[in-house]
Amino acid sequence: MPLKIDCDVVKDSLTMSVSPGLDYVVKTAERVWQMEPHRFVRIPVADRDREPVAVNAIWTDYGLRPSASNLAFIIQDVSQQDINQWKRWLADWPIRAGLLVSDKIYLVQHCQESGRLQERELEAESLATELTAPSSKAFTPKALVEFRTGQLSLADLEESVSERSFSFLIRQRANLDRAFQSAINGALNEIGISRKRNSKSLMSSRTEIAGHAIRVAIAFLAARILEDKGFFGDDELRIPTNDPRLLLNRTVPLANGFFKKALEESIPHLPERILQPLAAHLGSSVSFALVDHRDVGLLYERAIKELPTQVAGNNWSDLQRHYTPVAIAERMLELLPLERLRPEDRIIFDPAAGSGSLLLAATSRLALMSDIPEDISRRKSYLEMHVAGNDLDRYADLVTQLRYTLARESLGQNVPFPFPSHFSHKNYDDINEKNLGFKPHVIVANPPFAEDGNRQRAVKFIEQVLSWMNKGDQFAFVLPQSFLTARTHGISDARHLLTEHCQIFEVWQCPEKTIGIGAEQAVCIVLGSLGKPQILIPSAARAVFSRVKESVSNVREQGFLGKKWILDLDSNHWDFVTAPPIDIKVSTISLGNLFYVFNGVNPGKSGKNYKILQESSLGIEYKLCWGSRWRDPNRLWADPNRVPEDKRWLMYGKKYLEGPRLENAKLFDLPKILVGRKVNRGTLYPLAAQLDTTGLCPDNNIFCVLPAKQAGKYTRGYENTEFSAEWNSLSYESQRFWLLGILASNIGNALSLIGRKTHEITTAELCTLQLPLKVDLRIIEVISKIISLEQTDGSTAELSELRNQLNLLVEESYGNPCWIEIARTGIPPELEEWKSERTKPTFSVMGQVLDISQDNSRILLYLNGMLDDNREAWLPVLPEMPGWALDGTVFDAEISQDVETFEELTQRPWAIRRFRHTSRPYLTDDELREELGI
């Protein structure tokens, strides 16, 4: 049975012990601030297993619907024994102050300097004076200035989030996520669906019921958010509904078709025992009163993650797995310079809209702009007409409408946030300028990545949408990471098209699981505008390589984009987009000029007669087996004893292997360098280089590397190398040791990332790796010591010290260049810097990039607004600066209040953020004179 709730008990709890003075106190605050409070809003408390508590009266900035970032002041009637408990809650909540009304009136206020609570007792007759005193400004609810009365834009909401608000927000999200997870898990457990589902199993009745449960969970969650936001009217007690059927029946007549689909097509399949966990975890036990439009997207994403992978087909297309996280979508729109387009031309179109993340971000971005209509009805009409979507799936707009409804209710009716007036259901392959029905000037999309014959579908998409666009139109595309490096399936042609005909503002790289539900594919995101500028303007690149959970979650949920560097794009390749270039000043030589590179053996897909045995037999050729799984990532020596005895030998020859590499049969038996071919770049050592002293025969996931002279052959394209006398004087062992030192170093691994794919390095990429032309014999000595220590299980501390020496020596061999190292494992160090700065109070500055250094490592920046005596200085690349600002466009930005000089900004480059293009750059001279009244 669904949970029952005693309405009389709830009403008693919400109205208990109302002090005779409470009404007087509330009316006084209303009169002083000329603003009505929200009544009986349920706010979650930190106490374990306690339901949210209802607050008698709460004021928010601008009178908006309550959220974690806009709470200003509360008035609460409390009994004397509960005062300390309410003080603890006030200390935990992101609210600036409150009045606790008992037999006395207590003003409890947060002190900004110490972060502690201050309290003092007030007399009822002096209350109005206290609420208008200068000291009250710290907690007085913000109101619109007179000339903006009654007109509120999304820009009024987009203020810096305080550290307390941010901490509360993170806890609230975690609690709601946990509640939603518990609700879904409980329902799936009742159905009998295992959490570890086999994605290859066939669709069953249980998995179909699970799909229905997920749909109802999303609908019930959405309805509960609407209920807690006051969607159903001003029921002052706001008693939560614990029955999914009852609440959906109440919602369907007032909202869009997704609720109807859940009520009519899914609930009939669900018995009460399956609905019970939804009621228990999403009903009165939680409060959604403080969630905002971004939280809604995160909760939707959580639900879709739990959808069994076997649930597919047209009946389930309303539950979109191809999902762009809200934070990523907002960053894509934020970093496009839409201000360069005239307001009437800012028509944003997503041809593959899916569940609508990019459309929501587009509406948010437009609503923040200062040159759109101020009148509330004209603003609403403008936003409706200037965002458009399309998706082949006829149910896609149901979820999009649902998310718009939730966003609108989270913001409040005074903030226009309308659903786009145009949402079509065409195959975007069939869309052209004639049948589109409107002229988009901004295209944003996360198109399908699948290969279609010998073409990548994303490539066809790029070619098509660029044909719709005019010079100056802008775009932001989510693409597979292979788009940056691949030379097949038309990808290189698409890169050439973008480079030759567009200005690329930025290219981002995001790790696996960032975009899409359960996505295992790394992605890149390209932002730009149509029309190549007359002069070369550098582009910006950003990247997060680390795949650890905290790193990925901050990209997905907070829009963290990682390290940034500046580059000049080449139409033939985008190598320096994949990893920061390293400006090497010394002479270098390609690895392929000195060494021969070949693959290990290929057993073939069928396996043929490929066998790994414990010992060799007479009459059959055997070789010592080796694979990546036996590599010790902390050692440079490939220890043959790590191979289990029963897998030590493999039968060698055409009869047993699909690719025996017979031309290199004798070379397998020689000492050599082993380099990982299939190694993810998000590892500590993406080259995975080791020294083989035994004569191992690796599989085809490993390259073998020998001195070319010793091998008596060269990799194709490097046949005519002439060796220097210095090189010829080295023994083959010394040549191997030297190369191993380069390949095992930090800078060597960083160089290998330039131009390579996410999961592998090719023979050509390895052969083009630049090595120092001059051999430093100290590298050979250090490697010799490391190998000797590893072979005898030497001291770990000594090995660590030798690895540090090696890194310094190799960097010296490359001329000690300045280079940007991107964290490939663990939590990126810059993540903490980014998180620390974003909650600090800020002040505004105006600036401009005046120049960029020749090696693209520094910018000459003009800033007006800081206390520094200087107005310009050379700085490292600022990580949050948009790519469009590199052309010298004047910008506004926010900078942390405790940063006063360029020197301090150099130490804390994340302190400057929230860059904004200057408004109205499109005005002609005549229009500008008219604007200024000249």
Could you walk me through the main structural features you see in this protein, from its secondary elements to its overall organization?
By secondary structure, this protein is an alpha+beta fold. Helices cover 34% and strands 17% of the residues. It contains 30 helices and 32 strands. The strands form seven sheets. Strands 9-8-7-10-13-15-14-16-17 form a nine-stranded mixed β-sheet, with helices on both faces. It has a six-stranded mixed β-sheet with strand order 1-2-3-4-5-6, with helices on both faces. Strands 30-29-28-31-32 form a five-stranded antiparallel β-sheet. Helix 5 runs antiparallel to helix 9, helix 5 (163-191) packs parallel to helix 10 and helix 6 (205-228) crosses helix 8. The longest helix has 29 residues, at 163-191. The radius of gyration is 32 Å and the shape is globular.
